[in-house]
From TrEMBL, chain A:
Highest taxon listed in the record's lineage: Bacteria
InterPro entries in the record: DUF2160_TM
Designated name of the protein: Uncharacterized protein
From TrEMBL, chain B:
One Pfam match: BPD_transp_1
UniProt protein name: Sugar ABC transporter permease
Compartments (UniProt record): Cell membrane
Topology in the lipid bilayer: Multi-pass membrane protein
Family: Belongs to the binding-protein-dependent transport system permease family.
Source organism (scientific name): Mesorhizobium jarvisii
Any GO CC annotation of this UniProt entry: plasma membrane
Length: 95, 288
């Protein structure tokens, strides 16, 4: 069977992006296996979040950080990426 | 107490995961791929980087459509939620009137969206449409094809006609679940009609109201078919919402790259709003 996926128009940057997302999910799975229960806690947002919620918030927030950077600053996204990592660390630490 | 961990259940979820992969994940991945490239067809793509996102974020057309969407959703909620509560409060709670009202309320919900659009498109025409013709006969200068205000009124009235029933049915379900003992206690205390509503009916309806607000917000924010059929986004761009703009870009202009970028931003906004609503709902449950 010839599985032609050219219509999906893969590029290395987008493949790397999805690779990182997949790795994050695998990592979260491994974390859950090692420490089951999702580590629920009430953080600065004053409602209970699990580590899955915190990953979701980190990814969603990072997407908006990148968009805001593109719209307000420019197309060099490395600083936006650095800001997103700081934001994600903050979310995992305090939310 | 020790829990028994049995992961075999995951195999039962596997078919759903495969289905979701084919219907959502793979198309979403493709949209991400398209959003950073340009194409003229024949599966030939050229790298565009973040160009489409920058173009989109500085596009007045996009922000105007977004503002229209938000205004539309706000108006819809401001009308449909109070109206739905009012109708639900006045519906009979027992007797033959109950099934009659429930059927009448359900009817608009059963009509396909494009048919609703067609009904109102004809209904509003000032040459053959019942509403358009008689409004003009009464001296009201109504023409939804040429006047942006009339187009907005038509779309809002159409949506109210189509979807208020959903709010009514949800509120009604909340109201009939209130035991008679609550009303009897209120009567003994000499509570006014307003006090009964404020302290008995409204708290009991809160959960279903939250669902109603969530559903109506999401639906109205993603509205496409009805305004597309009635006004096609016009006159001018006055009723061009994000979804209509997106389809025009993707299918009308075949600009797949910009359309993919727009889809992703639209998707992120919907995702954020869904999360906010979901969080509010689940935390409300937890507090109860």
């Amino acid at each position: 069977m010839n599985l032609d996926l050219s219509w999906m128009a893969w590029t290395w940057p987008t493949a790397a992006f999805f690779g990182v997302i997949a790795l994050l999910l695998v990592g979260m799975g491994a974390w859950e296996y090692a420490s089951p229960g999702g580590n629920p806690r009430v953080g600065v947002l004053r409602f209970e979040t699990t580590r899955g919620d915190r990953l979701f918030l980190s990814l969603l927030g990072s997407a908006f950080i990148h968009l805001a950077w593109l719209g307000l600053v420019g197309s060099n996204l490395w600083w936006a990426l650095a800001l997103s990592v700081v934001y994600a660390i903050g979310v995992f630490r305090y939310v | 107490m020790d829990k028994t961990w049995n992961n075999k259940a995951w195999f039962l979820v596997l078919p759903v995961l495969v289905l979701v992969a084919f219907t959502a994940v793979i198309p979403l991945m493709t949209v991400v791929n398209y959003s950073v490239q340009d194409t003229f067809g024949n599966n030939v793509f050229t790298w565009a980087g973040t160009e489409w996102f920058e173009e989109l974020l500085s596009s007045s057309r996009f922000w105007e459509a977004m503002v229209r969407n938000l205004i539309f959703s706000f108006i819809i909620l401001a009308i449909e939620v109070p109206l739905g509560i009012f109708i639900a409060l006045n519906m009979p709670k027992k007797g033959w009137g109950v099934p009659v009202c429930l059927v009448l309320m359900s009817l608009p919900l059963l009509i396909p969206w494009n048919v609703v659009g067609t009904i109102w498109q004809v209904f509003g025409r000032n040459d053959i449409g019942l509403m358009g013709y008689y409004l003009n006969a009464l001296g009201i200068d109504y023409n939804y094809v040429q006047d942006p205000f009339d187009a907005w009124v038509t779309i809002i009235v159409m949506d109210v006609w189509h979807w208020t029933s959903l709010v009514v049915l949800l509120c009604y379900a909340g109201l009939v679940s209130i035991p008679d003992a609550f009303y009897q206690a209120a009567k003994i205390d000499g509570a006014s009609r307003w006090a009964v509503f404020r302290y008995i009916q409204l708290p009991k309806m809160q959960r279903v109201l939250l669902i109603a607000v969530l559903l109506r917000f999401m639906d109205s924010f993603m509205i496409y078919t009805e305004p597309f059929v009635v006004t096609g986004g016009g006159p001018g761009n006055s009723t061009t919402f994000l979804s209509i703009d997106l389809v025009k870009t993707a299918l009308g202009q075949f600009d797949l790259g910009p359309a993919a970028a727009m889809s992703l931003v639209y998707f992120l906004i919907i995702l954020l709003l869904s999360w906010v609503f979901y969080t509010v709902m689940t935390n409300y449950d937890a507090e109860r």
